[in-house]
């Protein structure tokens, strides 16, 4: 299993709506390990948060805030929740089904099962798939699932005639709202289509 790249961690961090911290300033100018001398400037994040860490905060509060590693349950759930919030969970779920390397029954196998055992078969199949997707029996596979999300994000290019994720989720809702949907970017998609066309 390969470690996640910084580029993928940054993409996932931005996808979930958080800042990927890239610090500048506070240059280490020498000293032994644990007793480094740092210049008098503060640390500044060049990411979207623009946070400033003073030297006092650096020394007395444990250094700089870390970026997510995307190797923990909390990180994985944050990514999955962001997919769901974007109204794309069903699309991601279908993609993940094609990536599952476990012995999960295909639709043809499910269709071949007698009706009286179908319920038990579905529970077994979806149980194994869910266990695989959420790394329930092997948390060390979380980075593999995060790489899979990165690959899925690569192929999520909006089509010019498709509505944005926010409007699609609204259309599929049991109680769709009328008017402007919060988070709508249809106009952005349509403007891109007009420029290309």
Describe this structure in words.
This protein has 197 residues and is mainly alpha-helical. The chain folds into 3 domains: 6-60, no CATH class; 73-156, no CATH class; 159-197, no CATH class. Helices cover 49% and strands 7% of the residues. It contains 9 helices and 5 strands; from the N terminus they run αβββββαααααααα. The protein has helices at 6-15, 55-60, 73-85, 89-99, 107-112, 115-133, 142-154, 165-172, 186-196; strands spanning 23-25, 28-30, 37-38, 43-45, 52-53. Strands 1-4-5 form a 3-stranded antiparallel beta sheet. A two-stranded antiparallel sheet has the order 2-3. The chain starts with 5 loop residues before the first helix and ends with a helix. Residues 188-193 have low confidence and may be disordered.
Poorly predicted runs of 5 or more residues:
188-193
Number of strands: 5
Strand order of the largest sheet: 1-4-5
Give the domain tally: 3
> Which percent band covers the strand fraction?
5-15%
The SS-based structural class is: mainly alpha
Tally of helical segments: 9
Summarize the main sheet. Answer: 3 strands, antiparallel
Distance between the termini: 43 Å
The geometry reads as elongated
* Cα gyration radius (Å): 23 Å
Q: Portion of residues in helices?
A: 40-55%
H-E order: HEEEEEHHHHHHHH
- Provide the residue-averaged pLDDT: 74
